[in-house]
TrEMBL record:
<dbReference type="GO" id="GO:0005739">
    <property type="term" value="C:mitochondrion"/>
</dbReference>
<dbReference type="InterPro" id="IPR014748">
    <property type="entry name" value="Enoyl-CoA_hydra_C"/>
</dbReference>
<dbReference type="GO" id="GO:0006635">
    <property type="term" value="P:fatty acid beta-oxidation"/>
</dbReference>
<dbReference type="InterPro" id="IPR029045">
    <property type="entry name" value="ClpP/crotonase-like_dom_sf"/>
</dbReference>
<protein>
    <recommendedName>
        <fullName>Probable enoyl-CoA hydratase, mitochondrial</fullName>
        <ecNumber>4.2.1.17</ecNumber>
    </recommendedName>
</protein>
<dbReference type="InterPro" id="IPR001753">
    <property type="entry name" value="Enoyl-CoA_hydra/iso"/>
</dbReference>
<keyword id="KW-0443">Lipid metabolism</keyword>
<keyword id="KW-0276">Fatty acid metabolism</keyword>
<dbReference type="Pfam" id="PF00378">
    <property type="entry name" value="ECH_1"/>
</dbReference>
<dbReference type="GO" id="GO:0004300">
    <property type="term" value="F:enoyl-CoA hydratase activity"/>
</dbReference>
<keyword id="KW-0456">Lyase</keyword>
<comment type="similarity">
    <text>Belongs to the enoyl-CoA hydratase/isomerase family.</text>
</comment>
<dbReference type="InterPro" id="IPR018376">
    <property type="entry name" value="Enoyl-CoA_hyd/isom_CS"/>
</dbReference>
Length: 263
């Protein structure tokens, strides 16, 4: 039985180890209303605690849109005091960065505004050929609010990020690949399949090691090189306190499959 029941997102557990989470507001091109943002965060937090789940894949229902950003109609009449409160929509999207398990975005169609930002919070982005990435907030009188101004520049460099944010013009999948925003571009009907294949590979490894790898790589965006190298060194050393590190190396030396215990 599926214990992950929500109204605006669908959750499928695949091979007992991968959670495929689908944004399901197709009539609004999967834009995030408050409920969808809350359900997404709640769901990912539950999945993060579920020992069976090793990897999360996020995608949009249909192929026209991954997610079209915040629900503009819902947001239109909010005031500053409301937006500054903890736990509103954008705040919930930002908090996805706290999820410790790997998250892969399988993006077909529009990833705009908060949709692009959620994709960038993910660890890997797999793009379908029709994917479109953009931060069009300036066109509706605001600026990116869920990390877009910070993560986009780190992904594509200053000039392209500035062009995208100041003009509001999106880029297509090939440009996103060229600029390093996405990890690969695949035919539209292979996007989810490709993401699930990556997820399966990750799920076959030691979860505790994967968790350390994710935190170490993410740290690179938040520190200078010397500090990042020092942290990598410490975390690398700390893997030698884990049984799964010993199991990985000894199974290789003894030509057998590793038996990960998440210890
Ligand atoms: N919020 C609310 N509704 C949205 C939406 C959004 N972000 N994006 C699309 N929709 C709705 C449309 O209003 C429309 O609804 P109705 O049928 O009731 O009119 C439905 O989805 C279908 O959309 P369109 O008719 O517009 O479809 P299209 O193919 O003509 O255009 C589009 C597609 C170019 C993506 C266009 O929908 C669009 O520009 N959407 C807005 C994208 C955007 O600006 N996103 C940023 C939001 S702000 C944000 O995210 C803040 C942040 O930093 C976190």
């Amino acid at each position: 039985t599926n214990k992950y029941k929500f109204e605006t997102i669908l959750v499928n557990i695949i091979d007992d180890s991968i959670a495929l989470v689908t944004f399901n507001r197709p009539k609004a091109l999967n834009s995030f209303n408050y409920q969808m943002g809350k359900e997404l965060l709640d769901c990912c937090r539950l999945l993060d605690k579920d020992d069976n789940v090793k990897c999360i894949v996020l995608t949009g229902s249909g192929t026209k849109s991954f997610a079209c950003g915040a629900d503009i109609k819902e947001m239109a009449n909010h005031d500053m005091a409301y937006m500054m409160k903890k736990g509103h929509l954008i705040d919930n999207l930002c908090d996805l960065r706290e999820i410790e398990k790997p998250i892969i975005a399988a993006v077909n169609g529009y990833a705009l505004g908060g949709g692009c930002e959620v994709a960038m919070i993910c660890d890997i982005i797999v793009a379908g050929e029709n994917a479109v990435f953009g931060q069009p907030e300036t066109k509706i009188g605001t600026i990116p609010g869920a990390g877009g101004s910070q993560r986009l520049i780190r992904a594509v460099g200053k000039s392209k990020a500035m062009e995208m944010i100041l003009t509001g013009n999106p880029i297509d999948a090939q440009q996103a690949l060229q600029f390093g925003l996405v990890s690969c571009v695949v035919p539209i009907d292979k996007t989810i399949e490709t993401a699930l294949k990556m997820a399966k590979q990750i799920a076959s490894l030691s979860p505790i090691i994967i968790k350390l790898a994710k935190v170490t790589v993410n740290n690179a965006q938040e520190s200078n090189l010397t500090e990042g190298l020092n942290i990598e060194r410490r975390i690398f050393h700390s893997t030698f306190a884990l049984k799964d590190r010993s199991e990985g190396m000894n199974s290789f030396a003894n030509k057998r499959k590793p038996n990960w215990t998440n210890n």
